[in-house]
Amino acid sequence: MSAEEEENAAELKIPDEFLKAKCLMNCEVSLILEHKYEQLQQMADDPMNQMSQVFEKSLQYVKRFSRYKNPDAVRQVREILSRYQLAEFELCVLGNLCPETVEEAIAMVPSIKVHSLSRLQLFMFLRGKGNEPPDFITRGRAHDDEAIEKMLNDLSLIKKFE
């Protein structure tokens, strides 16, 4: 992203360091903190290993807002969302908020939707009339309503059988 371009998450115009950063869903953070909590409980005899208030509040928060509790379900959610070549933050937003409809998903993460202009750019590029491929081709991602709906259905099945 060039210095003069304005950041816009809806269009996935984000500095490279954020696009490449690893993000965790609340349910993944919950599993990590739960494991650390168990370790701290085992060493409770040692007064130096007391949990901080920040740790306790963080654990309470992610437990409260985690949509998936089962470690297998958490793994499946990441696997399903990873198939769609989403940016890390898109994956985490969808995994955390669990939209039920395509409209909700697009409202939460507008960058997952292919706009009609992008389709025109694709057509022009494939016909040899465009200068360079549209952004969504170079990112390897293009999601129409059917693909988004399939992704949401896959997620809802995990939640249903958890």
UniProtKB/TrEMBL annotation:
GO terms for molecular function: nucleotide binding. Gene3D superfamilies: 1.20.1250.40. It is found in: Nucleus. Transmembrane segments: none annotated. Keywords: Nucleus. Residues 16-162 form the RNA polymerase Rpb4/RPC9 core domain. One of its GO terms (cellular component) is RNA polymerase complex. InterPro entries: HRDC-like_sf, RNA_pol_Rpb4/RPC9_core, Rpb4-like, Rpb4/RPC9, Rpb4/RPC9_sf. GO terms for biological process: DNA-templated transcription initiation. SMART domains: RPOL4c (SM00657). Belongs to the eukaryotic RPB4 RNA polymerase subunit family. PANTHER family: DNA-DIRECTED RNA POLYMERASE II (PTHR21297). This is RNA polymerase Rpb4/RPC9 core domain-containing protein.
